[in-house]
Amino acid sequence: MLFNSIDFAIFLPTVFLLYWLIPNKNIKLQNLLIVAASYVFYGWWDWRFLSLIIFSTIVDYTVGIKLKNEENQSKRKVLLWTSILVNLGFLGFFKYYNFFLENFITAFSFFGTEIKANTLIIVLPVGISFYTFQTLSYTIDVYKRKLKPTKDIIAFSAFVSFFPQLVAGPIERATNLLPQFYRKRNFNYLKATDGARQILWGLFKKIVIADNCAEFANQIFSNSADMNGSTLALGALFFTFQIYGDFSGYSDIAIGTARLFGFDLMRNFAFPYFSRDMAEFWRRWHISLSTWFRDYLYIPLGGSRGGTWMKVRNTFIIFIVSGFWHGANWTFIAWGALNAIYFLPLLLTHKNRKHLEIVAQGKYLPTLQELFLMLITFGLTVFAWIFFRAENIGHAFNYISGVLSPSFFEFPDFANKKRALITLILIGVFLLIEWSGREQEFAIEKLGMKWKPALRYSMYYGIIIAIFWFGGKQQEFIYFQF
Amino acid sequence: MKHFLTKILVFSLPIVAVAMFMEVLLRNIPNDYLYKKDFLDNHAAEVENLILGSSHAYYGLNPEYFSDNTFNASHISQSIDYDYELLKKYKDQLEGLKTIVLPISYFTLFERLEKGPESWRVKNYTIYYEINSSKSITSYSEVLANQLKINMQRLVEYYRFNNSAITSSSLGWGTSFNSENARDLIKTGKNTAIKHSVENMTSQKHQKIFDDNLETLNLILQWGESNDVEVLLFTPPAFKTYRRNLNNKQLTKTIKATKAICAKYQNCTYENLLSDKNFVAKDFYDADHLSEIGAKKLSRLIDEKITELK
After folding, report:
1. CB half-sphere exposure, A307, CA atoms < 13 A
2. Do A10 and B194 lie within an 8 Å CB cutoff?
3. For B193, which of A7, A406, A444, B255 is 20 to 30 Å away at the CA?
4. Contact B147 A192 (CB under 8 A)
5. Of B200, B180, B188, which is closest to residue B244 (Cα–Cα)?
6. Is there a contact between B4 and A468 if contact means CB atoms under 8 Å apart?
7. Catalytic residue IDs of A
8. How many CB atoms lie within 10 A of CB A51?
9. What's the pLDDT tens digit per position in B124-144?
10. pTM of this prediction exceeds 0.80
11. Residue to substitute from B148, B150, B247, interface A, most A β-carbons within 10 A
12. pLDDT at A121
């Protein structure tokens, strides 16, 4: 079920009402309802893949219980690896099997050995990369004794399958989300209205910004061989806002929806396009994934504590793995490696934590230096997104050489230029709102709170009208494919 | 909780009221779907040649130039599954039907209305033809299927300027592609060919659509065979700028599959008119659609083929 669908517009109020009408706010019944609703939500795509979630849930629940009772360190390790292998095994099979097979065949044929093996037609279960990582965080934390294992299978199932963030995150930590399923949830008016506002803003980002940008990004990337340099540059720009509007919009809807049910999910985006360097960008982009890799991969590898070589190695590992997490394609690996190259100079010169505070905090405008740094960082990001969006490495390089050709100075030429201009104006308005709200958790969190109610409500109606007026053709969320 | 629900309800009430009012107004605008449905409801028994298909048939086949009673039941972007749905809906009423004319264009076997960019048109079949095969809720509402901007334009056009949304003739032919307003054949050729080409033809998604469409075509042919109805399949003519930019693999696959399936049935004839030399620049409205001049030519040509089948 898509968040930007009518199906969800019916599903959400129904589950919301049922949830809060449960007598005495009985936690067990509420959790049970969440599990049932989450399975319906997920099964809307494909019921068959529910078995994977249920299997992962049972394995990690059992491993958690066994880890609690097991004192023998080697046996504990075996249990941990059982969980890791089961979860990553599913992920590996569904997401990476064909990739590895094809690359092995290519590699062997390079050395003159021909391997006969057929790739399989494998449908990627929606959200597998997200819930796999979430459930892994539970087993690892229990193993490290950072978290007590749960005996409540319903609460654990709800944690694994919690529908607001099941298919595209934020990837929650067991230490944050699981205890919330044990606590009594009372309806909180302020939290609910805050959640509703965040959902509204998320829908705006997805439907108005991302879906409109998608139309042009798809058109330009699909026909890049026939486009001039300026059109290609514009295509990359459209994709830059498409992916941000799409993914951060999804996160806003997820966090807002969770709030309606009394849950607090972690923040996933913090206005990344206002970053002054790439280190800051990575503290603000897909925060739940970056911190997951930091805690469960980068730090166990030694982090940045070792010598220069170790820092370089660990940085490349984390960025490349992070890129590969997005999909079985060399383009994602290249995207990850490129970001590692962007990030390394900052790390090696100890400037990676230079910009920890919000840009131009308490001011209306940034300084010229801040503006310059933001533009440079933004430009680097746009360049990297070309690899992310391209069909393959060759396509990415052809695209870049197209951008850098003399035709860059020609006028952009593609279908529906008038609509594209309107989309660019919408992006401009969107950026202004985002800038004005950059000190909040989401752009319209506090916007209009001091205004008269009539004016504030007019703004909400305005956003709703914009969603229906400018709404682009409904597109799936990009991150569902990961 | 009560306070929150009250606020949400009060906030939503104007939106719901406006949406419902718009829905009623939009459904009242006369349109091709409603017109053709009414025609078929009342005259299906008299129809001898039934034209189905997408815009290539809608603008390209004018029933006025056919010898027998002919009705054009095609619509813009109508995919083969909806051709079949229409046939199913009227199968018992089409008592005098002798021939079904169905275009197999370059994209026909690779597209399904509900899965493509024109999916918003599905609501026309659910609302006006009452074909309820769609699972999407948006397909059951005028307001939800289109952008607010488009709906407002439609309301203004009809209620302010009294412009009807009907663009077809009384026998269902699309009248708006006039030779006087013909478009640039070079530009439209390239752009449309790109739009009609499938990005990854062998992908699981496109293979499934291809297989499903072939199966639907099979069902149409089976129905024709069991009801003694001829099925004339044809690939419509297109201008060279369009033809040159087509993906040869996609075109070959389409023609090969159509020929193969047609060969299985006695009642099926296939004509490939894609590069037919009778059609010259002035016959085209754009690179893949005929103008009224080209439509006259094609209609007479198809009528001749139907006569040959008798």
Report:
1. 1
2. no
3. A406
4. no
5. B188
6. no
7. 326
8. 10
9. 999 999 998 887 888 899 998
10. yes
11. B148
12. 64
